[in-house]
Every structure is written in C-alpha cells, then in structure tokens.
Amino acid sequence: MTRKRTLHILNGQAMYNFFKRTNFLEQECMVPFNEAMCYGKTHKDLFSNEFTEIRAKVHHVTPVQYSETVLKPLAPLFSEKFTHIALWFDADMFCQINILALLAWLDQAEHTGDMDLNIVGDHFEPMSHFSLKAKGYYAIYKQVLIDKKMPGNIYPEPLKKGVELYLNYLHKDSDLMMYIHKYKDVPEEELMLALFKKFKHYGLGDTQYLEIIKSLRQKHQ
C-alpha cells in the first residue's frame, strides 16, 4: 500500500515565506514556483535545458541563476513521488498561466494522483477550490503558450479566464496597452504604480510592467 504524501506547490516565494511564518500547512512539504510564465518566450519541453536557456534570457539571468531560483526549489516535484498535489495560487492571469505550466508538466509526467487547486485572496486566504486530474493540460499548454491559440475547452473557470487574458494582453488594442499609450507622457515609475492598481486581474510585477512600458514607448518614438 502506497503511503499518502502531499506536495503543496505555492505561488512564489512570498506565499511560501508567509505559510512558513504562520505555520499554515504545519509540517507539510511545500515548494514555491518562482516564475512568470505569462511573460516572454517559452519552450514545449518544460524544465528542459532548452526551456531553462529561453526562460533565463526572459528574466535577464544566467541559466545557472535561473536553475537556482526556479528549478532547485521544485526538486521534490521532480525527484519524489507524491500521491496528492495541492496548488495554491491567486486568480489573476500571472498565476493561472503558472498553474497551466505546472499542470502540463504533471500531465507529461503522468501524475495519476489526486490534485487540488486552491485559489487564494490578497492575503493568501483560501477563496475557492477545484479538484483536478492531470490530463489534457500539456496539449493546452502547447496551444496557448507555443501556438498562441485559444483551446475549445479549459477547466477550471479561473484558468480559462487567465488564458483569455494572456492571449490578449499584449495586443495593441488591449485595455492595458491602450492605457499605457494614453498616458505616454507619465514617468515610467509613476505609470507602473497606476497599472498595479488598475489592472490587478493581470497580476504582473514591476519588472514586467516596466519592460512593457519601455517596449511600447520605443515603438512609438
């Protein structure tokens, strides 16, 4: 009989540190996923050397630095067997695309155990819950992040909404890009803070917003 083991995969280092500090999951095995899969290029072979090189360039770090920050914390996922996976992520686009990458890898790895997705609020409090199976997500990952196409069917609903936002947010007529263009004379740092407040549903960080602002302004010079 297989001993039940749960791995909790958390939305980044901040949540990991908060859960540790508050003993929220007590002695459970927790790992953070320190990525921003909604931004920049990726590769079909998740967490491979090619993937690592591409994602390192996106984050302006070396492959070694990327491995240290992103892959090393995920070591239990890659090397140990778990009967149950619990994902703890926000509802925004940033988190949902990270979830998709993890579900795709679990699908490829043929994880057959139970999986739970816990959607949390601004203060990491659980808001909603979905039960999942790691099936079909690798095909969705390739459709969305490689081919940039909307799949016909996506479950659960927060993931579907995240994918819809992802496929549109960098288009010139998206609400985000039009807002940045409208306030083209506002200093970058000031505009970035305004974007944080107005576009919470994207969940992007300061690095992504500043790069988007700079890129758009260079195009219109």
Task: Write the topology of this structure.
Blueprint: E1 6-10, H1 12-22, E2 29-32, H2 49-58, H3 63-71, H4 75-79, E3 84-89, H5 93-108, E4 114-120, E5 126-132, H6 137-146, H7 157-168, H8 175-182, H9 188-198, H10 206-219
Parallel strand pairs: 1-2, 1-3, 3-4
Antiparallel strand pairs: 4-5
Helix pairs in contact: 2-3, 5-6, 5-7, 9-10
Detailed description of the structure:
By secondary structure, the chain is α/β, with parallel strands linked by helices. 32% of the residues are buried. 48% of the residues lie in helices and 13% in strands.
User: How many strands, which pairing sense, and closed or not: the largest β-sheet?
Assistant: 5 strands, mixed
Q: How many beta-strand elements? A: 5
Question: How far do the termini sit from each other?
Answer: 66 Å
**Order of helical and strand elements:** EHEHHHEHEEHHHHH
What structural class should be given to the helix and strand makeup? alpha/beta
Spatial order of the strands in the main sheet? 2-1-3-4-5
Give the radius of gyration: 18 Å
Which ranges are low-confidence, i.e. pLDDT below 50, for 5 or more consecutive residues?
none
- The overall pLDDT, averaged over residues, is 96
Total helical segments: 10
Q: What helical percentage do the residues reach? A: 40-55%
